[in-house]
Amino acid sequence: MEPLDRPRGFARSLFASLHYRDNRVFWIGTMISSVAQAGFLVSTSWLAFEMVGSSAVGLVTFATMFPFLLATPVGGLLADRLDRRSIVLVSQVVQASVALLLGLLALLDVLPLGLLLALVLVSGIARTIELPTVGAVLPNLVPPRELLNNLSLNSLATLGSRFVGPALLAPVLAIGGAGPAFLLITLAYLPALAYVRQTPPMPRTQLATTGIVELVREGGRYIRERSMVSLMLGLVVAHCLLTMSFDSTLPLVADKNLRGSGAIYSSLVAAGGIGAIVGSLWLAGLRRVARRGVLLLGSGILSGASTAAMASSEVWVIAAVSMVAAGLSQAMFMTLATTLVQEAVPDALRGRVVGLFLMSAGGVMSFGNLANGYLAEQFGTMRILGIPALAFIAVMLLTSLARPALRLVYRRGRLPDVGGVSVPVG
Questions:
Q1: Cα 172-176-179 angle, rounded to 5 deg
Q2: H/E element holding 393?
Q3: In this predicted structure, what is the pLDDT of residue 158?
Q4: Nearest 5°: phi and psi at 181?
């Protein structure tokens, strides 16, 4: 884990974790995979909207996110038991294969909605197995002092891809439709696989417990017995449900509120990606631990306010600016919450704990998007998106008042040592 010679000044701080060779090639590979996945989501959502309408987008988004309820604990368990590099490679191969099949079926115009949902579900399962594995790998590729920087740059790759993927595919969708877009996504996975293969194999962890159910329970027990870890999980779930479950309604915002088309929809998704890039870079350059707590509170409040502004806007500029603010604040909140937890979790449990976090967050977003895609058509985006987003601000403020330990996190930028019953590891 020896770094290259580092440049001085701002660049050294901003990209510190990428000066470690194994981490750099792994980051590039997973970044390209994230761009391809972002393009995949935009293509499937717009295709479903053209086929049926906003309710179909809700179904596609649900099929993408529903695997978080089932597959992420399995992915976390596999990450703690098998070679983590191989898991990432296999997951990316499956996603590329689904994109290729969708591209061919769309070009032949033989793609019914049911088959689209089934293939999106398969891709979603592969993605939700990949994500906890990536989360378990990152702390092992850099020293502890670079963990926030590494997680921030990983957030830059995953959330910033919301800008790059839609931006690359917007002209393809406008000119050629979903078929060529899916084929382009397939090609994007090739360099992703090539870079991940350059990472050394990551041998499995030797675990004393062999039962699958008990291994998953071990991760859940770790979360339950540490009150601050449980509290952070609760805030993440509330944040994902109340402020981040808007993917299925963005086509409706573009079509009804802004009276636009696929290009307007792509521009809103890209605006959120720009904000995520800025927020992730901001955190990547952050070196003072104490500031992380204040940023956690501030980003949570801004996330609620910006989502509400986007949902109520009928002017493209205001909606786009709101999406930039939403992308920035949501990237910062999720990355900071993840970093606080990752610092506390032992490596032998990391895959399962990350998997349970992703299961909880992705699970509520899957059902949130499914409901919002339908309800927003009936009651409007402000009632369905804006009011819950404002409610999250109240959740943040009331929880801060009720939990002195959370206020301590705001001051110190770390989870306090709350003890708890020890969990056997390995």
A1: 95
A2: helix 387-402
A3: 76
A4: -60, -45
Angle at the Cα of 359 from the Cα atoms of 335 and 423, rounded to 5 degrees = 85
pLDDT for res 420: 38
Query: Helix, strand or coil for residue 20?
Result: strand
Report which of 160, 157, 164, 166 is spatially closest to residue 267, judged by C-alpha positions: 166
Encode pLDDT of 273-325 as tens digits. Answer: 888 888 888 888 887 777 888 999 999 999 999 999 988 888 889 988 999 99
pLDDT tens, residue by residue, 298-310: 999 999 999 999 8
What is the SS3 assignment for 255? Answer: helix
Which CATH class name applies to 17-195+208-412? mainly alpha
Question: Which DSSP symbol is given to 3?
Answer: B
Residue whose entry in the numeric block shows the structure tokens 């994902």 = 240
**pLDDT tens-digit series, residues 41-83:** 888 887 887 777 666 777 887 788 777 777 667 777 787 778 8
DSSP 174-220: HHT-HHHHHHHHHHHHHHHHHHHHTSPP-PPP--S---HHHHHHHHH
Dihedral of alpha carbons 37, 273, 18, 73, sign: negative
Least confident of 240-249, 279-288, 364-373: 364-373
How is residue 320 written in tokens? 């786009």
Question: DSSP letters of 93-123?
Answer: HHHHHHHHHHHHHHHHT---HHHHHHHHHHH
Residue 201 buriedness (CB in 10 A; 0-12 / 13-18 / 19+): exposed
CA–CA distance, 363 with 383 (Å, rounded to integer) = 22
